[in-house]
Amino acid sequence: MKTPLCERFGIEYPIFGFTPSEEVAAAISRAGGLGVLGCVRFNEPDELDAVLEWMHENTDGKPFGVDVVMPAKIPTEGSKMDLDAMIPPEHRAFVERTLDDLGVPQLPDGGDRVNTGVLGWLHSVARSHVDIAMEHTRKYGQIKLIANALGSPPEDVIGIAHDNGVAVAALAGAREHALHHLDAGVDIVIAQGYEGGGHTGEVTSMVLWPELVDAAGEAPVLAAGGVGSGRQIAAAIALGAQGVWMGTYWLTAAEYNLGAHKPGEPSTVQQALLAATSRDTVRRRIYSGKPARLLKTAWTDAWDAPGAPEPLPMPLQNLLVGEAHARISASDDPKVVAMPAGQIVGRCNEITPVEKLIDGLVSEYREAVARMNATLD
Amino acid sequence: MKTPLCERFGIEYPIFGFTPSEEVAAAISRAGGLGVLGCVRFNEPDELDAVLEWMHENTDGKPFGVDVVMPAKIPTEGSKMDLDAMIPPEHRAFVERTLDDLGVPQLPDGGDRVNTGVLGWLHSVARSHVDIAMEHTRKYGQIKLIANALGSPPEDVIGIAHDNGVAVAALAGAREHALHHLDAGVDIVIAQGYEGGGHTGEVTSMVLWPELVDAAGEAPVLAAGGVGSGRQIAAAIALGAQGVWMGTYWLTAAEYNLGAHKPGEPSTVQQALLAATSRDTVRRRIYSGKPARLLKTAWTDAWDAPGAPEPLPMPLQNLLVGEAHARISASDDPKVVAMPAGQIVGRCNEITPVEKLIDGLVSEYREAVARMNATLD
């Protein structure tokens, strides 16, 4: 399973694994893929700095990447207090009432963690993530990729990345996005289909991937959305992608240790993921203000119910639900989970170590190619 | 491009082409695929009988199939007059007003064709389609497949088909549907992803196809939804399907001659299809009462506008919009079209003869397999 991206990044397989967990990201890189650490959960520069240091110590010198959420157009920003004032009281009341109805406990420490996973969506914070990643790259040379989950990164960020020998990738859900990225200097297009977890457009992977491959010309395309088996990697290569970008698939990795869990047991979120079928996701604006695919749970149902308010635009929706996400994340009811997940969650049916997941992908890929060769005259 | 289905059906390529046009269906069969004639537009048994006779005369003895719309559960039925009485006057008024607003002319013959494409959705009419197809099979032995676009066919129909040596296929948009079909005795599962034209579920082809392949065990799966290139056929085979089921792709075939058109020019519908991108479809209940993907036009926009009524359940919605479809179909404004189409419509960019389309699919398929072989160590 070799494509030109393997040589370019010094990796064994063109499997790019996005995950908010440094344990999982490191394991993906150690197993021959490229682990990409999602940075949006880090509010404080020092936190990210410490985690990247840990990544360095646990990746045997192998390359890895970081993923930031950085709109090219700087949104209306200000102190958290200014933004807070823009949230209608009815929205706050709905969130409070819903959490009560669903039996989600208050945070044990009384709210110190209310900003968890919130500030990373602000431009200024995302920008500090870039600065820290570049510092690490100059020190250790392991960070080979910076990916942007939201539009083209700002021009100067692309310049800084290139100056440090770091490739820039950006997610695209439509042909227009991909062309815009490439115009802006992005190196790699991540074509994310409708079925993917998190932000997606309407066009599905089967249609989108080859469309973006054709649009991108010489630039490589990573196939995202719906990849959770070696057969799907084979489909990605068949459709012209040079590799895959997988996210949901790693959430049930044995190394994934974010969220509330009892020692030795899957976390609350993992229990929900293990039980879900491919039909148990919805695409809604309630997570971030933009359409994102989420696990369908009592939380998403509440926002679908009659009388629920319309979600707010980004970044206000993040601020609105930030505390709710923290409370849900600390609680232990798998029926009440707020988690981005793609339709491939139907294939996440057991807790498995990353190395075994990747071995399985590679061997199933080989079987798929053999099956295709058998169809030739 | 050989799979076990080629031998089973006596075809060169496992390309199953669904189309309402006998000209296109015959051309697909002549070019080495299996043309499958959509029967829903035939109100009168004699019409279908004559068209099947024409198919016999124009397919050089090659096999072909028919597609009917036949719910396993017989819906509330009655005379057209009984059903008409169940349509709320507000719905009729909305349709009339919308057609006027959009400038769609009355039918030139004053309404004789109002039932066009309507009665085929009724169980009794679909049943007559089966009877006529079986008669033709006993006479000429060319009809090798009967496909059902809506649930499992009734048990006795499956028995009659098998008695005549005809395989039975049924569309499935979810694992549960596929298992139900196989329990009922269906031979081939057509896994239709979210991106497909016409009736679809929520799960996309990338996720659905391998899920149904695994669920179907030994039974073959045809991959439907999003197929319009040799690369996508390669993806289908990589994902474990034994062939593909393509519909939208043939609507811009040179042989397609349904709908209003000036001599030597593409029809109104084809002009709309040629101009559409992959983002120009919507999935709505307005065509039949069940969610179906349609070309996004001023007609679908009108149903999305504030104040538009909720679509009626099947088969009432068909009756409600039957005359509207006939009027739109006879008119010549490509911005006002009522047409099922999948997201692959973005790849339908020129009028091309069927034989050339199939040649292109086959050669691109071979290139895709070669590209995959180049990734092996």
TrEMBL record, chains A, B:
InterPro entries: Aldolase_TIM, NMO. It comes from the Bacteria. The keyword Flavoprotein applies. Coiled coil: none annotated. The keyword Ligase does not apply. One of its GO terms (molecular function) is monooxygenase activity. Keywords: Flavoprotein, FMN, Monooxygenase, Oxidoreductase. Pfam families: NMO. This is Nitronate monooxygenase family protein. It comes from Gordonia cholesterolivorans.
